[in-house]
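Milestone M4 deliverable, item 7.
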Amino acid sequence: MLYRSRSVLFLLTAATVVVFPIDAEADEGDTIDTLSEVLAELRKVERRPFTGTLRWKSEYRLDGAQGGDFFLTEKTKVGVESRLTDAWRVDVKTDQTTAVGPPQGHRFVSCFDGARTVRAGYYTKDAKIPVVNLIEGESRSQEAFDPHKLAIERKAPRSTLSQWLTQELEPGDRSVAEDGFSGMTARYRGAEKIDDLPVQVVEAEFRQAGKPESEVRSRWVFFLAPDRDWLPVRAEFWGYKWTTEFPMSTFVLTDIVQTKDGRWLPREAVQEKFGEGFAQRGERKRTWREVTTVEFDPDRLIDRADLCEDVLPVDGSPVYVLEDGEIVESYVEGEQD
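Output delivered:
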């Protein structure tokens, strides 16, 4: 079966990609019938706290001569999120190659020690001196793993999926406007089944900003599974500028398991993008593919002494002190008066 319930640590294994059928059966027995009800349930499980260690890896590969993001040919992102009951650490490193120029990379490491949050940014592949933000109290890491918004992760949203759907975005989140049509409206489509799994379907329609009666230019469709912590087991992006025959991008959780602390997490997710030029000619040809794999161990707890390793400023580090999201002080470590 595609969906397996396990009360054990899960580790990475090879998985066969299972493509859900587009034509799904309606679930007559489901009682949810409004968007607000779906979003209320989604909010209950988003960013659910945990203890242990979560590891993930995303691998992007260009597939074909057309498409890709800014001539991006390969990208690998590796993340480790370690949490105690009152402290945490998130470490995410990205390496990528493009059709032009040398390989690139960056790393962002954040920690919360129970009193303050420190975020270090290594903005080049070989950087040794981080740019450091010091924040009193706890400030959520922008790089923390969020399985509910994996489908839109390439848009770099700072908000949760429920916030994104309602446009109640966190400060600095421009992920909706980046679609080019900031007039977004979410709506509830109804209950369906995918591979015998009940799902609730929510759509996000994009129209020209300020013209709510204009035609729908693009649409995101999310198939949320109530029995799997409301994870989007499938998502589709439809770009009607290019074609109405098939989605321009698909996202599928190909393997989902239940951990021993009761939460549901994906072990593998696959996202594929199809070429715009091909689509306009009626051809469905993939231009890139990204596979994300996940491991979770609730019993692996980080040593407190290691929480802020590679996060604290070193001599030469630009340091910014933030309050309420605003910089109130800045200096270079080692050069203070």
